[in-house]
Amino acid sequence: MGEKIPKETVRENEEEEAVVEEEEENLTFEGLGLDPRLIRALIKKGIQKPTPIQRVAIPLIFEGKDVVARAKTGSGKTLAYLLPMLQKLFTNSVPRKKLAPNAFVLVPTRELCQQVYKELSSLIELCRVQLKVVQLTTNMGPSDLKAALAGSPDILVTTPACIPKCLSGGVLQSTSINESLETLVLDEADLLLSYGYENDIKAFTAHVPRSCQCLLMSATSSADVDKLKKLILHNPFILTLPEVGNVKDEIIPKNVQQFWISCSARDKLLYILALLKLELVQKKVLIFTNTIDASFKAKLFLEKFGIKAAVLNAELPQNSRLHILEEFNAGLFDYLIATDDSQTKEKEGAIKESNEEPRKSKKHVKQKLDSEFGVVRGIDFKNVFTVINFEMPQSAAGYVHRIGRTGRAYNTGASVSLVSPDEMETFEEIKTFVGDDDNKNSNLITEFPLLTQNAVESLRYRAEDVAKSVTKIAVRESRAQDLRNEILNSEKLKAHFEANPRDLDLLKHDKVLSKNLPPPHLRDVPEYLLDQTTKEARKMVKLSMAAIGNSNRRRGSKRRLRKHKDPLQAISAEASKRSQRSREGVVKKDASHGDDGGVHKKKKSF
Ligand SMILES: Nc1ncnc2c1ncn2[C@@H]1O[C@H](COP(=O)(O)OP(=O)(O)OP(=O)(O)O)[C@@H](O)[C@H]1O
């Protein structure tokens, strides 16, 4: 590890810049000076060699420098700061003052909070070191905050809005922070200000000691990042990657194949049906809509054809959202329809969480969206191969962040955008933005080659018939029903999930919402409907999926998870006469139950 440069020296220096050189590609984690315990933990996670941003950031952070790391989405920025931060904490020879956590990680959303917390917890567990990490969110009451901060945690992961709450509630003292804080990380820095945290961050900087090492991680360089840089860092080391020449190169994921399909807005359901039902895209699939209603419409429509998908949006309770993400990441279902309203949020700016008490009435919940929810930025969806833009985002930046949910780190992926005539103008802007500046004729977003007009037309009659049955009222009812279920289940199972975080399969989020089960003739596409080209395309997609081991991974995780016990049964059993079994806490799920039938029936007991 390099010698620690005194903070004062670093801050008086001119800003320095580093570029990752190609010849450094062979650098290993050992070569970066990473502790063997961390290297072993990474190997257990399947991570062998550092990504470019990790190759440069880790040594600089070891040197004690303030760092601004700008690297494209999915490039491994999280580990770039977590690894040296952890090593700094568990190899520190000087006893640390523990009046307050020694490291603060500030992120813009609760989902990110949970993600970073989990990553840290698993690294700590795998390294078998005595470090304690806590996450705080603004929906925690004073007693929860106090309980979480008891026992001298070493690392605090939170959103900036939570810090003033802790300070004013007396659970954190500014003098303690000033004496103990050694590392401050602002992750997804370009979002922190647009989420309305400027005042919270400004107020917090007053308590940050000058000796504290500050790290600022961001996917883009924006005016907001500059503002934060000036606010908190002094003469930091600015990290850039070799291909960085302008903003767009910084953020466009290179290993995502981008496709588009032209279709009318009305035909979008038909086209998504064709893509999924004819298996022309590789799983797992993340589908983006711009509104919650559109996501329910797509879900209801698809489930009539036997395609089960979960929805994810800002209206759902936080427990449910986190659980949906975990299930999807664990491979419990293949299709997730996420509502991305991030651009509205960014445009409106400063929609800050109101520090209200947890929601109480269903009516209230129904209308309130969580402004700390962010589904596009920073969320690490695992093993998503295909991103589908069911509706186009409103800007090129939104597009890039959506497609960046696939092709993470060293993986590859694909995106398919369904573009209607009224979205064409935005799409042209996106094409120009992602296009190659040096070669004006090149077009990085190409027409999706695997879907023939014949194949689409073979499904049209069925699709239009079913689409008519998915009325506005049906959408509204399903949305309300889903929300009610999620609130009830989320509250009831909160304690259970805290104690049994691996019991993911007991509450399936891709359950069918329609009152009537899909008729069998819609579930199966008769072979005679498929033309030769579609049959071949389907075969090709299956072969590629097998090649990347996608299907094996999914089956494996399902089998593993089914072994766990089912507290849903236990809860319903408590009320029933099967007291003997309920006293044991949990009841094994009947192995003969299918994904749907068994779990579904049990949930009705709620
Ligand atoms: N050295 C590595 N080798 C392989 N995979 C890695 C490596 N480092 C990180 N990853 C994985 O890559 C994925 C993306 O990493 P991460 O979420 O840190 O990206 P990011 O740069 O923060 O992206 P975003 O800007 O979208 O937040 C994660 O699943 C992570 O576990």
From TrEMBL:
Q: What is the enzyme's class at the highest EC level?
A: hydrolase
- Would I find rRNA-binding among this entry's keywords? no
For this protein, the record's InterPro entries field holds:
DEAD/DEAH_box_helicase_dom, DEAD_box_RNA_helicase, Helicase_ATP-bd, Helicase_C-like, P-loop_NTPase, RNA_helicase_DEAD_Q_motif
- Disordered: annotated segments: 1-22, 346-365, 547-606
Which ranges are annotated Acidic residues under compositional bias?
13-22
The reaction(s) this protein catalyses? ATP + H2O = ADP + phosphate + H(+)
Spell out the molecular function terms from Gene Ontology.
ATP binding; hydrolase activity; RNA binding; RNA helicase activity
Instruction: Cite the Pfam families for this sequence.
Output: DEAD, Helicase_C
The DEAD-box RNA helicase Q domain, residue ranges: 27-55
CDD domains registered for this protein in UniProt: DEADc_DDX56, SF2_C_DEAD
Which ranges carry the Helicase C-terminal domain? 274-456
Q: Which residues form the Helicase ATP-binding domain?
A: 58-239
Q: Which UniProt keywords apply?
A: ATP-binding, Helicase, Hydrolase, Nucleotide-binding, RNA-binding
Q: Where is the composition biased (Basic residues)?
A: 552-565
Listed EC numbers: 3.6.4.13
Here the segments flagged for biased composition (Basic and acidic residues) are 1-12, 346-359, 575-599
According to its UniProt record, which protein family does this protein belong to? Belongs to the DEAD box helicase family. DDX56/DBP9 subfamily.
Read off the PANTHER family from this record: ATP-DEPENDENT RNA HELICASE RHLE-RELATED (PTHR47959), DEAD-BOX HELICASE 56 (PTHR47959:SF21)
Protein name as it appears in the record? RNA helicase
